[in-house]
Amino acid sequence: MFNASVWFFIYIEALRSQKVSRRTFQTLSVTNSSAVRSILLRGLKDTSERKSLEDGKQIHDEVIQSGLSEDEIMSSAIVNMYINCGNLADACKAFQHVHITNVAAWNVMIEGYSKCSLYKEAISLFWRLKKSGIKPTKITYLNVLKACTESESLEEGTAVHKALTEDIKSDIFLDSVLIGMYAKCGCIDKGRQLFDKMRERDVVAWNVIIGGYAESGKIDEAIYLFKEMQKQLVLPDSITYVNLLKACTNAVSLEVGQDVHSHMVKCGVSISVFYGSSLVDMYVKCGSVRDAQVVFDTLPSRDVVLYNVMIAGYAQERLGLEAFKLLSKIESEGMQPDRVTFLCLLKVCIGMSSLDLGKHVHLHIILHGYGLDTKVMNTVIDMYAKCGGIVQARQVFDIIPKNSVVTWTAMIGCYVHHRQFQEAFDLFWKMQAENLQLNEGAYVTILKACAQTGALDQGLKVHKLIRKTGFLSTILVESALIDMYCKCGSVKRARRVFDHMAQHDAISWTSMLTGYAQHGYGAEALEITNKMLEGGFKLDRITALAILSACNHIGQVDEALCFFYSMAEGYGMIPSAEHYACMVDLLGKAGHLDEVGDLLNKMPRQPNAMAWTASLGACGVHGNMELAKFISESLHSVEPRSTAAFVLLSNVCAQSKIEDNILIQRYLGEIETLTDDTAYTYS
Predict the structure, then answer these.
(1) Which residues cross the membrane (predicted)?
(2) Is a pLDDT exceeding 60 seen at residue 678?
(3) Using the 8-state DSSP alphabet, how is residue 354 labeled?
(4) For residues 528 and 559, is the Cβ–Cβ distance under 8 A?
């Protein structure tokens, strides 16, 4: 009986050892063409699986010599072989010789583009197929929808969905893929509409919609659908529970996460490594490292991924010693730490500001073969920068390959962090001379250096380079330019950049507002504030503080009060201690001391040192000794070891021309005592 697999291997080995010529094989093709076809198809399949490009090319040559290149199945197999062997260029050449009606080859090519992350090309090829008048198959739609999903192309995905409804009858699997596409493209509501219309739903469909809500952080909907799924007697599987845990993780909902965990235990779900990683990750990101540790300790087996999740949790909670104990456990259990392990441990070192531990991790990185891993070594540079090891950072930079702009940016960032700005500028221009393709991170880092030094000449040169390289339309770079120009005193240039932005983020609004306020442009600061508020921009605490600080700089009391009292109702923010302190300072400077007292009494918590200090400074300006006495005593009760209350009260007395005052003498005596104690403590 003829066996294509056996013949294929005989043929390949014969070709390699040159025992059989092509002429001999062509003789076989005359006597038994179907046998040759089977051998070649089996050969293409095998080389595709082995990713053996050399053998694949040999077989492709035999296909041509045997006159089988027009065969639809054969030509599709050739395209597929080149794609699986990672040779997209030859796959494209082979595809050009495929008969236009060969939809299988089109499907393979669309899938191939997606495999290579060339999603735009995959989608474009699909529309070429449609224009050619060839009817796409279910496989075609699955491949192109994957491209739309991975590229998060909602517009293209919607158009493909419309074409699908015209071409073929949908089914549960296709509907599930469509729901997943809408969810990934940020349109979960449209996915839900499609889900609700489905006459029949299997566990895959339920998992996709629950997973979509999980990714969106909509935990209530995810839990609701989980309950509905059970009501309809659809049994949850491993993916269902992982999606629910992901929903809890994304929503940072510890309570619901604990409920899901309890449900799993009640239903007899065995907590394997697969579930364990999700549970530990959920507990870690919801801030309960203790619960994560309990799950971790009870697991029957652990892999490096699970260890990494636990180490990341310890890093997050700044429990450095526990993280390093896990590194020892990984090695004692015969496992090898991977790049994620080392990235997490470097984060621990940064959090602890421990140069010695950082050196220890660096040594382990080299011993485990990650000494040339770009991402790991960039993080090593960052670790040394933030742990005070600038010399070591430069030594690492000089040793490792410098073909990545991220590596250069890490070293430039190190110099900026240590305020060695000239070295940062020199390295930036050296990087530019190396003809590396600069990215957002590089520009933002060097613009930060320009801003901190007030180096307008350097900033102008960088801005010119940004225009030349086409990064002017990216919001991060534009915001950094605004901040740089404002801090360099060139507010008009900052405003020009601001006005040309297609959209604004918190940094651009805050930088522009602060720049105007600090340079005394009161009217312009108010204009920016009004534009921001009227434009429906979602404020955060930092932006709100910038608005109040701007009002403080330009003395706009009424506007500040109006905004401050609207923070809770109008913007959903409860003013923090920093917001109160800013208002106290503003009212104090304006002489509204009665309102200062009212504001301090209205604080939801006891005023902190910042608020009391601002109030005491205001008393000095306006000579209110009674209020100054009350505030200084309050400040002393909040921070008894601080000399600020006494120094400020001394200034108040001096400004009020009170020389022989019992109060000031008493407090000055306490200042001297505290100063002596402090000196003793730190000596």
Answers:
(1) none
(2) no
(3) -
(4) no
- Cα of first residue to Cα of last residue in the chain, in angstroms, is 95
pLDDT given for residue 630 in this prediction:
57
Q: Which range (235-244, 505-514, 527-536) has the least confidence?
A: 527-536
Question: What are 141's two structure tokens?
Answer: 């739609």
Output the pLDDT for position 651.
Answer: 59
DSSP one-letter string for 570-601: HHS----HHHHHHHHHHHHHTT-HHHHHHHHH
668, 632 in Cβ contact below 8 A?
no
pLDDT tens digits for range 412-430: 999 999 999 999 999 999 9
What pLDDT, on a 0 to 100 scale, did the predictor assign at position 251? Answer: 82
pLDDT (tens digit per residue) in 640-675: 555 555 555 555 555 555 444 555 555 545 545 544
Nearest to 652 by CA among 671, 628, 626: 628
* Strand, helix or coil for residue 505: coil
Q: What is the spatial distance between Cα 666 and Cα 683, in angstroms, rounded to a whole number?
A: 26
Q: What is the CA radius of gyration of the chain?
A: 34
- Distance, in Å, from the CA atom of 647 to the CA atom of 546, rounded to the nearest integer, reads 28
> From CA 622, how far away is CA 597, in angstroms rounded?
14
Q: Which residues of 211-239 are buried (b: 16+ CB within 10 A; e: fewer)?
A: bbbbbbebbebbbebbeebeeeebebeee
Residues 6 or more apart whose CB falls under 8 angstroms from that of 121 comprise 113
Are 204 and 172 a contacting pair, CB within 8 Å? yes
Of 232-246, 391-405, 443-457, 507-521, minimum mean pLDDT range: 507-521
Q: Which residue has the tokens 């960088």?
A: 462
Lookup result for tokens 């919001």: 475
| Number of other CB atoms surrounding residue 452 within 10 Å | 14
Task: Sketch out the chain's domains with CATH numbers.
Answer: 186-301 (1.25.40.10)
Beta carbons within 10 angstroms of residue 187's beta carbon: 18
Count H helices and E strands in the chain, helices first.
40, 0
pLDDT tops 70 at residue 431: yes
Using CA atoms, how far apart are residues 105 and 102, in angstroms rounded to an integer?
A: 6
What is the pLDDT, as a whole number, of residue 680? 36
Query: For residues 417, 420, 422 and 425, what is the CA-based torsion angle, rounded to 10 degrees?
Result: -20
Position 658, amino acid: I
Rounded Cα distance, 488 and 334, in Å = 56
Angle at 666 between CA 663 and CA 667, to 5 degrees: 85
Residue 14 pLDDT > 60, yes or no?
A: no
Distance CA 93, CA 293 (A): 55
172: nearest Cα among 214, 210, 204? 204
Strand boundaries in 397-527, DSSP class E: none
Q: What are phi and psi of 235, to 5 degrees?
A: -75, 130
pLDDT of residue 1: 42
Q: Note the pTM of the prediction, 2 decimals.
A: 0.61
Q: Which of 132, 54, 143 shows the shortest CA–CA distance to 98?
A: 132
* pLDDT at residue number 57: 78
- Whether the CB-CB separation of 78 and 60 falls below 8 Å is answered with yes
Nearby residues of 458 by Cβ (< 8 Å), 6 or more positions away: 425, 446, 449, 450
